[in-house]
Amino acid sequence: MMLKSQIQKIESITPEVMIVGIDVAKKKHWARIFDYRGLELTKGFSFKNNIDGFNRLVGKLGEIKKEKGLERIIVGMEPTGHYWKALAWFLKEQGVTVVLVNPYHVKQLKELDDNAQTKNDPKDAMVIAKLVKDGRFSYAYLPEGIYAELRVLSTMRGQIRAKLNSAKNALVSILDEYFPEFMEVFKNLDGKAAMHILYHYPFPQDIREIGIEGIVGEFKKVARRAVGVKRAEKLYEAAEKSVGVREGLTAAKTKIRLCIEEISFFKKRLEDIEREMAVRLRETGIDRYILSIPGIGIVTAAGILGEIGDLSRFENWKQVRKYAGLNLIEDSSGERKGKTRISKRGRAMLRNLLYQVAVVMVCKNKEMKALYTHLKTRRENPLEKKQALVVVAVKVIKIIFALVKKKEEYDAKKVLGSFREKQLQAA
After folding, report:
1. What are the start-end ranges of the H helices in 284-416?
2. Beta strand pairing status for 72-77 and 97-100?
3. N or C terminus of the chain with fewer C-beta within 10 Å?
4. pLDDT of 301-326, one tens digit each?
């Protein structure tokens, strides 16, 4: 179990430990080495981001460890970008403990030293080492096996969805300029009929030329069920009254077709990835417990596990909550008691996934809907919509953790608990 409390982390920094702060970059990293008191053991040095550089680092660490009679090495770094991952994996394979420090903390401590925000690799490496010495770090979790696969798939899905949304937005932007009335006829541009018309007859002039009968004929080519004549009439009427731009149509039509082809391409990629996610999810052996929760589907479950990783590494659900950055902190000063808010110091993608799950839950899950309604309408301290959804998201964490831990499927009677049930009944 690598998850530890703050006190345990501080206690782990003993006289036998060598602390290494590394500032990572694309081509060259910078390392500085200290003892448990914060005294620098050797002059800082840089090493290349390749196998020769990694071997140089490990060799240097081994020499100093032997020279100083130390027993353990802890290497700290910031989890910014992706350049740290290759080095972290290499060090892990060498039996070196890798920990991560919060970039926000690095920035704060750096300013305390000399009141300067400027980027300085040797200085950053020193600050990272200081944070490790003070126990202000988290143990690096590098998912392995099926959880590594799920994380990569989840990340890919997020990236492709972003590209898909970008292509859709580009298409809407063109329509806003050349045929803004089109979206009044087709609220959803994803439909086959809408995409077919846009690909072949995207502008008001095109629609007027083929007429209502021509539009109906085009609908029949792609629609499984007949698209009503009324829809065709409405589209023709929109074309008649359109205020869209009438110049640059040839180039604009090319752009529309490119957007539609991109949308089609990214949709297909999403389908491929989601099929792969379903396969990998089954391989975890715990899919049945998570999927038994009303409101959680295959893609969501795979995404959550990809972000969390192996749940057995957590001692309790509160650690998962903190990992997601959904733990509450209080903004207070002196005698002023401020409002509580979530820390947002965890994995942003996991936090977003859980929030989206909560949105679905309050619609599709009877128990979560009841909880959500109670939180918003209770007499004392009623919550706003987003606050209530955060509570539901945290509840989802508790449920998933409990079901996987106990190897049980969802039981609506056990979800809210007796205390919450009484609250809801009294409301």
Report:
1. 287-291, 298-308, 317-324, 348-364, 366-377, 385-406, 412-415
2. parallel
3. N
4. 999 999 999 999 999 999 999 999 88
Residue type, 127: V
Give the model's pLDDT for residue 408: 96
What beta strand segments (E) does 188-311 contain?
Answer: none
Question: Can you tell me which residue has the tokens 């007949």?
Answer: 226
Separation of alpha carbons 281 and 223, rounded Å: 34
DSSP 100: E
Per-residue pLDDT reduced to its tens digit, 369-416? 999 999 999 888 899 999 999 999 999 999 999 999 999 999 998 887
Closest to 157 measured CA to CA, from 262, 259, 277, 291: 277
CB 80 within 8 A of CB 74: no
State residue 226's pLDDT score. Answer: 60
CATH assignment of 6-142, given 1.10.10.10, 3.30.420.10, 3.10.20.580, 3.30.420.40?
3.30.420.40
CB contact set of 11 (below 8 Å; sequence gap of 6+): none
Class of domain 149-276 as given by CATH? mainly alpha
**Using one digit for the tens of pLDDT, what is the confidence trace for 107-147?**
888 766 655 555 677 889 999 999 999 999 988 888 999 99
User: How much helix, strand and coil, in percent to the nearest 5, is found in the chain?
Assistant: 60, 10, 30
**Residue whose entry in the numeric block shows the structure tokens 């970039």:** 103
